[in-house]
Amino acid sequence: MAASAAVRSSMGLTFRLSRVMPDCNTCPLNRLKSCVSGAANVQRRGSFDSFRTINRNLQTSKGLYHSEEGSSNAEDPEDVVNVVYIDRSGKRIPVKAKVGDNVLYLAHKHGIDLEGACEASLACSTCQVYVSADHFDKLPEPEEREDDMLDMAPMLQENSRLGCQITLTRDLDGIELTLPKVTRNFYVDGHVPKPH
Amino acid sequence: CCSPKVCIVGSGPAGFYTAQHLIKARQDVEVDIYERLPVPFGLVRFGVAPDHPEVKNVINTFTLTARNSRCSFYGNVNVGKDVSIEELQQAYHAVVLSYGAEGNRRMGVPGEDLAGVYSAKDFVGWYNGLPSCQELSPDLNCETAVILGQGNVALDVARILLAPTDILKKTDITQPALEALVQSQVRRVLIVGRRGPMQVACTIKEFREMVNLPDTRPEMMADDFEGVKEALKDLPRPRKRLTELMMKTALEIPSEKEQERQSKASRVWAFRFLRSPIEILANPDNSRTVGIRLAVNRLEGSGDGARAVPTGEVEDVTCGLLISSIGYKSLPIDPSVPFDSHKAIVPNNMGRVQHTAGLYCSGWLKTGPTGVIATTMNNSFDTARSVVEDMESGTVDVSAARPGSQSISGLLEERGVKPVTFSNWEKIDSLEMSRGEASGKPREKLLTVEEMLQVARK
Q1: Quick one: CA dihedral B188, B194, B198, B199, positive or negative?
Q2: B369, B288, B366, B327: which is closest to B121 by C-alpha?
Q3: How many helices (H) and strands (E) does chain A have?
């Protein structure tokens, strides 16, 4: 009983993970532009069928899944990951998240203004966050494509990562994610200081 | 008492991100976005390369903003011609100029106006369906194309010239451009810069795409990288990674598999450094270009501040297509708006236009034409913050009501100008997408303003 519940729970996790952060860019369907549900086709389908919307639906239905199961409650402490977002004004926003949550969509769910212009497709750097020192090394190494996009981010720091590429695990409990302060360094003559 | 009304001129990323931030920051503000074309989104629609569809996802964010009850879109309105900045300033509490950079920097060399010579801005506009560039009809019947400039736009152009058309035909590239590229004889593209490898303006993502471009091989020159290895350790991360990749491409012996791939490739691309244009060479009857005369430079100094100094040596390169990708440039919109013609921007302090209360700017018009969408986003949020600060401090007096679009709509009607609403645009959008479906493309763009207006008004 417990074993099968655990299996179903973990499959649920996998299901959630795969929905939360699909990597379309390695999928042959996407390469051949034959995928009908990927981010690349958002505009094709016309409107709000974006990852952002799909993801939100998924988050709210998660409780249902668990209560159907009847085997674990939605507040399973094993599943909780405590996260603190520090917004651009320096305000600390603690969030009770779950294992498998995606940092970008979690921020959206809690009204934190972390932009995700390209909708998690590694084609922009607007979801850049600074990761707390204690947790930075616990993250898996960024793939080359994430590093490429980070290179373009304004105010890049040693502890910069793209929020859309961070999936929460128990290890990351207590993680603090700081949104870069938007620079006010534009000079009167329009000169933009080069990042260094 | 009354809602503050803000007018934004330009519906590209700068305009929309400024609107987004304003609407979020104040629950009472109403934002009207004016756009010269019947269709919104500026360079996201007309600049981003067709094979970079993920970059265009930002359109979903902009659409959310446009559909907000406190935001209205007015397409087909030419600010500066159909309505003046002064009239907008009278109708709104604040006016934000976000109309970008529609001009381009000239090379300033003889032969610049010969057939076969194009600005990258026009070439990109052509393959992306910008109505004013549809008559470009570039002649692709030559083996070698030279691109001057080594920024991301230059690499986009190179990639579009060399990408297998099987890939391009699944994108939103225009049908006429696709057909021209299918017929193209171009097999070799040289991407030429004044300075050296450590001064290139492109970013690693775009360079990596060239390295991985199917059916092509690189022809970088090892000599160009003399002394570069030693300089690597002092470079900031983004510059270091890019330089390492360029060096690897130029110096490393490829794996057997890669060597085989390269030997089968039918197309070649190369970076050429330390070369500046002196003259564009013409055919005997002086009607089109057959090549370019380049000055050979040496570098003085290092890093971003390195200067290209002519050595006196000169080199001629044969080519039938020359694309100049040396920068976009903003143009003045209205004599009443201060304009710095040297820097080609509107002089400002944190988005507040100098000497002009209630007037702001965001995007490339504010900082010059460089940076990616993230840069423009930050820049626009900054300007929006300045607007909100000014409203809160009373610098912008929102206690007195302003008519906003009510009076402007009246003026436009008198002048026979019929704006395109966001719902009208959505008809164009639907039609383009359904047309695209038939050929396996995300959309088939409408290519003339007339057609756009016709569909908008159905």
Answers
A1: negative
A2: B327
A3: 7, 5
**Separation of alpha carbons B326 and A76, rounded Å:** 58
User: Helices A51-69 & A2-20, crossing angle to 10 degrees?
Assistant: 170
Q: Please give the structure tokens belonging to residue B330.
A: 């903003």
Lowest mean pLDDT of A53-67, A168-182, B333-347, name the range.
Answer: A53-67
How far apart CA A118 and CA A127 sit, in angstroms, is 9
Per-residue tokens: A88: 């651009």
B222 CB burial (10 A radius; 0-12, 13-18, 19+): exposed
Residues B22 and B383: their CA atoms lie apart, in Å, by 9
Domains and CATH numbers, chain B: 5-102+330-420 (3.40.50.720), 105-328 (3.50.50.60)
Domain made up of A80-178: CATH architecture: Roll (3.10)
Q: Which amino acid is at B28?
A: D
Of B53, B204, B433, the CB nearest to A46: B433
Contact state of A40 with B53 under an 8 Å Cβ cutoff: yes
Closest CB to A44: pick one of B350, B382, B442. B442
Residue B189's beta-bridge partner residues? B145, B269
For B169, what's the count of Cα atoms within 13 Å in the CB-facing half-sphere?
10
B117 closest CA partner among B158, B146, B89, B141: B146
Q: Decide if A37 contacts A31 (C-beta within 8 A).
A: no
Give the chain B residue whose CA is nearest to the CA of A155.
B375
Q: Pairing between strand B71-74 and B117-119?
A: unpaired
pTM tops 0.80, yes or no: yes
Q: Is A21 helix (H, G, I), strand (E, B) or coil?
A: coil
Write out pLDDT tens, residues B5-37: 999 999 999 999 999 999 999 999 999 999 999
Which candidate, B75, B46, B42, places its Cα nearest to that of B423? B75
d(C-alpha B81, C-alpha B116), whole Å: 32
Other CB atoms within 10 Å distance of the CB of residue B316: 13
| pLDDT reported for residue B327 | 95
Q: At what angle do helices B175-183 and B120-127 cross, to 10 degrees?
A: 110
Partners of A123 on chain B (C-beta within 8 Å) are: 52, 54-55, 57
- CA pair distance B246, B249, nearest whole angstrom: 5
In whole angstroms, give the CA distance from residue A114 to residue A92: 14
Between the two ends of chain A, the Cα-to-Cα distance in Å is 57
With cut-offs at 50, 70 and 90, classify the pLDDT of residue A185: very low
Question: Whose CA is closest to B8, among B27, B30, B34?
Answer: B34
Q: Which of B378, B353, B349, B352 is nearest to B363 (CA)?
A: B378
Q: Which residues of B touch A118 (CB under 8 A)?
A: 54-55, 57-58
pLDDT at A78: 79
H/E run at residue A96: strand A92-98
